[in-house]
Amino acid sequence: MCGILGWMTTARSNISEEKYKKGIKRLFLLSETRGKEASGVCCVTDKSVEVLKTPCRAKKMVTSKEYHKCIDRTVRSPGRLVMGHARMVTNGTEANMENNQPVVRDDFICIHNGIIVNDEKLWEENPEIKRKSEVDTEIFLALLDKYDAKADFLKAFRRTLDEIEGSLSIALIDKKSDWLMLYTNTGSLYYAVNRSQKDIIFSSERYILEQMIRKEVEGHSSLEYKVFPVKPGQGLVVNLLNGKIHKFSREYDSFELSKGCMDRKFKLKNLLDVDSSLKKISPLQIVYNQHELVSMLQADMEKIHKLRRCTRCLLPETFPGISFDERGVCSICRDYKKNLPKGKKRFLSELSKQHTVNSRYDCIVPISGGRDSCYILHYLVRELHLNPVAYTYDWGLVTDLARRNIQRMCSSLGVEHILISADIRKKRENVKKNVEAWLKRPTLGTIPLFMAGDKQFFYYAQLLKRQMKVDNVIFGMNRLEETQFKARFIMQGQKEDGKDLYFNFTGKKKVRLFAGYAKEIINNPSYMNASLIDSFTGFLSYYALPQRYVRFFDYISWNQKTIESILIKEYNWETAKDTDETWRIGDGTAPFYNYIYYRLAGFTEFDTFRSNQIREGMVTRQEALSSLDEANKVSVDGFLWYCRTIGLDPVATVRKINLQTPLYE
Residue 503's beta-bridge partner residues? Predict the structure, then answer.
């Protein structure tokens, strides 16, 4: 879930010092798309190994005096390796420098892209190993040392891989040896060599390598590079002295690799004062009473149970724009049209219309870590034998559970994962500003502004299509999960027919929707803050960009039991601890906004989801109704995680929400 990069040259290389420094900087800046929360660099010569780590983005680090001193010392050596890391934080806060990369343990130095999802279990199973940090990468290095990597490194490496679950794309060196190892179990690793193999450059993405080469070294015939993928389950061992490459696979190799006895001087430095904004990264410390919070996170169940509901589905009278006929059937049910999947044959035909010719991939699959997108990846690889690339836009409110599930799927299927990481600190600050603005003038219509920052997901999907020359993007949006009550709340009071608003937004309705938000923002000037541009671009990304993608479940039937069974049994897909539901468990915003809807309107997304299932004949009304209270149960842990993540006092926030008069009173 990060960006790794590096450039190795031998003593015979004719790359200039200036070009080398520019190339490394370019790699760092390009790799920031994969992580902006921390960065680090490791500089290696035959005399020394220097590691520099900082809890700030690479863009800041490469301007520091310490970085330039480190790079300058390295480039003077006739043979050198610089490898770096752009981190998106998963396990372990960046405020603790032990968690940042490169990770150093014993004689090993590693940069890692991915998540080892069973690290906690492995620590428990190996109590004799002392843990130094929270980052999952450490268990990989600890097991290498345990399995006697000094005697037979590749044997110890394979034994370690057998115990690890999750994704692992790494660059690894040993302080005392003259080799560099590159390995991946997902395919998220590329390397480039020039014609004489005097130089080797590597990165997490082909596009990053190609851009760096084009901008920094293209046009020099002696420096022509060719880019190669490291395939899932395979790796390279590169001799740092002569540049010779040995390829190996997880199952087989034809050479031995052992630790060396080089006497390199080692230096590790942590930079804490590179960025003045670093004071903001410490976790929010708020003293609150857990029992008080739990007691406050309640809705008036007696009144909610007395709400008039549709006699066919579950939608209550507080649903915006709803009406009931003489039989008690709601207007949504009367206008609803069943979703009839077009079938596998039509799906393959649709993909063939825009068949990708100039790419290694058949399609792009946006993956959130939720059940539907994970199932799509499984289906495309295992059922259709296609070669997709997975893509995630992480805006900072994707839960760690979702991130782990993404890595489970990609590592098990050997699928490359492209991560585009927002400036997560800035995104979270923007969300906080919008929530604080909402609390000053709460309206149900403006709740979607909390989630406006994630809508660039669609923009970057289109951008990747162009960069990777892939024509098909397959989204997992499920019509059962479409609600539209969020839009209906903002459009209340406007003249509209109600028909097809549930599933289809015409251009005229999009204009009215935008006008509704604009009116609310004018009425509440607190929304006119630093997040406004981000919210506006999110709106454009979602509503204005052409929707040139394939909706998987328009073709293939959706069956919840089948999907859950396959994911859990075949991939050890992780579910939430505080609910039996598998929907929205990867969305860190859902517990917060669903509490507001439930408290103030008496229903949530689960009411609309269950209602759609009833209309499709998947469940009876009684079955849906009997499960509704449990589905709508407030996730205290989820609510608390959201408040802590964006920096809100959870108790004070709940108090303000609870002061509002519900629609059912």
Answer: none
